[in-house]
């Protein structure tokens, strides 16, 4: 068995600062995600979770601090280059092509990863290699049977599963999951939790999620963000009982 604690972090966030006017949305955030680890970031509304993700992705520039992937600083890299260097993301609001089928969405993702988007003018389904690979990803997220369904006509939970297939098809090293359970009922949440559980150990995952049941079922470590500051980082089992966490966020939910 590999000793994960000894491995170099796949993602490092080092002293990140970001203000919007007088509001410090990130106030010196430092955390890391190790290879194969699910590290959940939780915190109350407005704590700065989305702002953190946007800075990791390169959509928002920090005022100060650094984001490193595999030990390399990303500060000078635009968002598309970070994606190319191994940063995958599933969005809080779905980003699929609604007029394309589930299969076509994954094929397009594979094409964009291989830099062959110039093939777009052709019918993407003609390309056997992409179609076979896309089918495999659809199988991994449990959507084989829905391959010909239009993304816009799929149920919310299925669209989120498809989004995961689209993100995974790009072969990310680090996966940022921004509220993957948002808008899901208990059944869909349980399905997504099972899917994320099946990915455990293969990717470095930073998970932002309000669904505490899912967080405690999945996370190896939890960081708690309050007013743009990390007030706790540690194993999920400690987060449940830590007095700072309980006072800041979990309250009676953790009981
Ligand atoms: N572009 C912006 N301009 C001004 N203020 C912003 C901007 N983006 C975020 N904020 C503010 O920064 C703070 C952190 O917001 P953020 O969306 O990162 O929090 P969050 O933890 O993701 O919240 P939620 O759980 O509700 O999604 C909030 O007070 C928010 O109003």
TrEMBL record:
Keywords: ATP-binding, Cell membrane, Membrane, Nucleotide-binding, Transport. GO terms for molecular function: ATP binding; ATP hydrolysis activity. PROSITE patterns: ABC_TRANSPORTER_2. InterPro entries: AAA+_ATPase (IPR003593), ABC_AA/LPS_Transport (IPR051120), ABC_transporter-like_ATP-bd (IPR003439), BCA_ABC_TP_C (IPR032823), P-loop_NTPase (IPR027417). GO terms for cellular component: plasma membrane. CDD domains: ABC_Mj1267_LivG_branched (cd03219). Residues 11-252 form the ABC transporter domain. SMART domains: AAA (SM00382). The keyword Cell inner membrane does not apply. Pfam families: ABC_tran, BCA_ABC_TP_C. This is ABC transporter ATP-binding protein.
